[in-house]
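Following up on my earlier thread - several people asked me to post the actual chain instead of describing it. Fair enough. Here it is, all 455 residues.
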Amino acid sequence: MKVIICGAGQVGYGIAEHLASEGNDISVIDTSEDLIQRISDTLDVRGFVGHGAHPDILRQAGADEADMIIAVTFYDEVNMIACQVAHSLFGTKTKVARIRDGSYRDKQWQKLFSTESMPIDVVISPETEVADMIMRRLTIPGAFESVEFFDGKASLLGISCDADCPVLNTPLRQLSELFPDLGAVVIGIYRNGIISTPHADDPLMEGDDVYVIVSASQIRRTLKIFGHVEKQAQRVVIAGGGNIGLSVAERLEKRSSKTRIKIVEFNRAQAIKIASHLKRTVIINGSALDEDILREVDVARSDLMVALTNDDQVNILSSVLAKNIGCKRNLCLINSKSYMPIVRSIGIDAHLNPRTITISKVLQYVRRGHISNVHTIQNGFAEVVQGEVGSLSILSDKSLRDIELPEGLRIGAILRQNELLALSGDTVIKAGDGVIMFVTADHIKDVEEMFSASA
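Reply from S.P.:
Thanks for posting it. Predicted structure:
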């Protein structure tokens, strides 16, 4: 696939890195010579210095042959115009744009992004996506990762196996025997820096991060089996009053009148601004790295610290500091993947990477075949994919026992006629079934073939 990416910042770089690693033909446009030099030196992509919305630059980047344009510059208007120019002058089939300003996405202007007006096929709003993910994490405490599939009928849960996990050293086969009606499938295990698909005789070990597909009705029970009985946070401290922090606070206010919310915002003007949008949230102007400020917002008696500033180091350090003071749990926003391997060891309970969320959204439209949902995990080393089985797929009309999946693939759930099936070796996959599958990065092409319209 030939893809043009406008914007070589963190998001653009992450998308380019992921798509280039899979052998796609990638061109990247940015006005910054330094960013283009960096991305050209480190990735197998072609770099072009220029304005992403200018026709001549788009043509140099190969817009007349491109299958997709992904516009993720810092400016909404540039992203929109780039998609418009690619559509009008070069007939680019799929247009993806990052739109951060909420006024463009207001329901009253929903006709704006249409073929007749602004021909953008996919609108990505990282702030909205991140806020949605944070609220889901707050709703399901105990899971360090939580993503919905099949319109909420099933969920992917990331669960840590701590020292007090009741099912440590229990083989997965025995878990199925102990809880036959649970309807939860362990599809991946992250152990000692390696993520892989488990076997039936593999035991769960202390320190494992397990990825489980579970029906919506069994989420609480599943977490309890793994030793996680945390309650939803009633006292929340938010570090950072930007777009994401404001959005989370607004949603928390609407969710429950019992939730006590406090925001620590360093910029005085921003603190005053968000105060006018919030009704029950206490706003404190100060640094989340100041222990006196954290004590002023009573972080010691808080259930959760959510660090959402634009600085990874501030987010990490303030989360650790809050927990040391006495806060029960923390959730941290981290953009740089270089911090990912160490966050758990220094006391971060859960973290979110906006770039990963954006990449997952884009991959839904890059993947070949009938794939409708993609979520990347562990920095792209694996994915959880939702797709529909075609009549000519190698999965069709075969029982799970008879399907010979390569190492690195595992089926987690099957949806038929809007109902989740209870899985066993005798379960037969039919054409039209929805399937959730875990796949390591080296087997992405296999999954695309399985969900392709033709054999």
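The CA atoms of residues 178 and 344 lie 30 Å apart. That should answer part of your original question.
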